[in-house]
Amino acid sequence: xxxxxxxxxxxxxxxxxxxxxxxxARELNLSAPALxxxxxxxxxxxxxxxxxxxxxxxxxLIELRDTGADLGEQLFLIAGGLRDWALAHPAEFGLMxxxxxxxxxxxxxxxxxxxQAAMRFGAVFKDLVxxxxxxxxxxxxxxxxxxxxxxxxxxxxxxxxxxMPAGAIYxxxxxxxxxxxxxxxxxxxxLHWALEDAGAYFDAQLRxxxxxxxxxxxxx
Amino acid sequence: xxxxxxxxxxxxxxxxxxxxxxxxARELNLSAPALxxxxxxxxxxxxxxxxxxxxxxxxxLIELRDTGADLGEQLFLIAGGLRDWALAHPAEFGLMxxxxxxxxxxxxxxxxxxxQAAMRFGAVFKDLVxxxxxxxxxxxxxxxxxxxxxxxxxxxxxxxxxxMPAGAIYxxxxxxxxxxxxxxxxxxxxLHWALEDAGAYFDAQLRxxxxxxxxxxxxx
DNA sequence: GCCTACAGTGAACACTGTTAACCGTTAACA
DNA sequence: TGTTAACGGTTAACAGTGTTCACTGTAGGC
Lengths: 220, 220
Known about the structure:
Arc Repressor Mutant, subunit A; Tetracycline Repressor, domain 2; 2 domains; 10 helices
């Protein structure tokens, strides 16, 4: 779809607000209302673009993952790959992950294409962590340390996490929240005040998280 | 300034895009151009509002901090206080922290009021962590573990961190990035797929981070 | 030759931030 | 006391936005 690639071109050139219907149409020598033959609204257009971006990122990570020798290295690879992709495509990343405060209970169980693509993206990390665990179960915090409320919530997601126990799900979640938060902060410029090049900091953090998952120290 | 409180009312009611010049003006029985007597542009208005919000949040955290018996408890208090404030004011929090991708080298060393207010906000955490360290220096990772590049960057910020060594600055940064990332993910709905109530998870994470800073386990 | 679906157009509506020209009140000052 | 300037507000207008409507060709199927 050339219309989405036109939208993306405008996105990388001028950020999310540059994706205007007339601007996109102009890019294709078209009239603005013509786009309504293909998308129900402006939101639908950017949502479809976001879905595409998720799929592209997912494919990139899968390809990168499959170059890893073992599961542990694969986990390091996709973590670094996510950061690299985000830094190489800050506008796209901002559009995908930086849309805050989705009004509560937006669409119940969102099944919009972009949300589904986001789930496929997340599954790459979830599946790999689960594989790592079942291949060599990493030591996880005992239930007493997490507290009964948290354990109950985690066990509720046990089937989704391939039957992992609460403590292991907790560590998987920690892996994800730390990785995600770190990359968002770096890409969104929330780390500039402390570090001008967050690469070394990211690597150190990744080593920490990897250790918690029982992985060998860093590759390379 | 009643004009900013009108803008805030619209913000909490309809999110950031609801802050329109005409909407704000209507709230005060005014005409839209009248607002230009007080703010140079729409951006200036929301920027001033953001500065106010930072100051309000900072004051709230300081007041909360001063109810803590010792420095360690104070650190737990402001961490939880930040989360509570964010959850209680998601629209405000989204406006303050969820504006992604500030175009590179926006205003060099930004000295806009909102940026200054953000620095005062961050200082609350930085100062307290430094006090905690100098009262009872927590064990920090050796330089060899962090790598020379990262150590060099961290030592560059040593004066800003009250003379703390690289390893201690690293742990302080870890405290902040984990706390910040965690809260952003929760209030921006990025944790719903895994936890419907992230409170217990937040507490567990906070205990982890506190342990790394040599603090006693949780209060209460 | 009809008919339907497709793909596109220009005009228009309601909205946005912003600017210009204008007006009344108020206060300072020679 | 009369003049001047600033303050705080107005209406009208401009360019831009997403969106809808009515319309026009143009292709293919029966």
